[in-house]
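anyone else get weird line breaks when pasting these?? whatever heres mine. first is seq + tokens for prot A
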Amino acid sequence: MKRWHCLWGLWLALCWLLPAALAAAEPAYGPLFTFSKQGRTHYLYGTMHVGRPGSDAPDWGLKQAMAQSEALVLELDVDAPDAPAEVLALARRGAAKQWRQLDTDSRRLLLAQLRRIDVERAQAQSLAPAMWLMQLALNDYQRLGQLTQEGSEAMLRQMARRERRPVLALETTDEQGRMLFEMPAPALREWVRQTADWEDKPEAERYYRELIAAWERGDLEALQAMVALPGYPRLSAWTQREMLDRRNLTMARRIDELTSSRRLLVAVGALHLAGSQGLVKLLGQRGYLVRPAPRAP
């Protein structure tokens, strides 16, 4: 599973057109923490933006987290009425600039990959390359039976509707779009190269499954270690700085602001929780007592 998958699968919520296969229902896991300050306890959940069909049954811990919270907070509320149209508009607006950022080799690599999914040059150039790279990433997930409509966020939104909890967002579509569709040329070219290099590697499926298993165990240390394994596509310096570290600082500040008025269940991509600049550490630095949440009574 490329690191980009964990960070940007949510962006393709508008592409929930993949077929679902039958599977036995299993409880959803993933890292879950409580964070408390001034007598008020909140929950922090590290999500996976895709999941297996039938794997969207919340476990006891998540049910408790939702029951004891007054609002669900996500990275982005993809159920907002204008969200899909805004994403497409941003991808179209950024298309010409991003295609110009690709050098000859990276443009050739991306077009070759898109032809394999029946996307020809004219169609490809109508959207920003970053949008197509996310689609290619989700195609890899699909081959493993991992679909966006079965991801953690979809399950949590359903729970929030049942419990009549409001859904809040830490970021706007425009904020995410500016970062994604205005990334510097070296970072975009590296993304293209890594996607092409990783394509059809025999060890890819094993790596994907190990990363998914680490998330299901809630093992943040394993997740953090796997994104730095030698021989696999790694987070670039720009990705680590812009897509994780800086966003985490903003997320921590906005979470802190929201906690003043209500109890929260905050759910963001699992990599946002991990590492020295992850939300677990940042919330601790803001005076919260952060602990693993119980997953069973």
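and prot B, same format (seq, then tokens)
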Amino acid sequence: MTSEVLGMDPGASRRRKIRWLSVTAVLGALGVLGATLWDHYMIQPNVARENESNKKYDAAQQPFTVSVRPDEDEPEAWAVVLDRELTAAEARRLAAGDRSAAFAYLKRLGGHPLAHASFLENAPERYMRQGSSSGGMELSDTFKMNVLSTRSHTVVINDWKVTGLTCRKSTAKTVVFHPLQGGVTYQGIRLHLPPWAGEPVLTDDTEGQGEPYFATRYIEVGGGQPSGGLRVEAIAPRGQSCEWGIEVHYSDVHQPGRWVRLKDGNGKPLRIRTESVPANPRQKWVFGAVPWTPCHRKPEESMCDML
């Protein structure tokens, strides 16, 4: 029956039948191999076209998006500035609370918090010497910057610079200050407005503190990488309120390097507001030997000269 199905004379010899079956098997195998090779030959161009299409789609996507938000955490030492004076009732409530209660209350009143800048114990002398003429302690307007990318290939941000800096006299009339006993260090970067040479610098309590951040580090996103983020300490001149933008330099597989201006969520150039302590506040409250001393009325009291 098998011989008849294969189209072979059923009366043929056993040797002839075996030869016929062998030839048939080889031809069948060659047919399967040929079909496989053809499929492979046809798949290669399809894969190449698909890869090229994916690459073009990836290149058309924004390399990254950036969000900026104030650091909402209460720092170890802080100042809060307000555009108006505290009323008598508000002053009594301030004096009745501890530091954390006061911090939260002042923010509810519309106060703008500032943090004691990181203590850069191991920063190079050449960096610290730039601030020798300014004197006094430094307070930073701190924010967190988060970078996201949907790119399938990695995007590397390896430099940045301040752009469009404008400053004007601060309108703040009141400052409430909780000083720091000792020094404190935060992870992130720091810059002054206008930037000192080498800024932004690393603030981490580790090797490289006070050195230019992007000289040895970078922000890497995309390609399955998690988002990249930085805590940024921005320090405006005392008595000044500043606005500024950021340009960053990035590179990826699509081009070797490019400078771009960061934009906000509405697609407009990102503008960052940085406040400072007013030069001559009408009210100045300091948490000293006597909690919440009104230094504007008692300037001789302990710690009133710290700010």
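btw re prot B: Residues 2-58 form one domain. Residues 121 and 209 are 8 Å apart (CA to CA).
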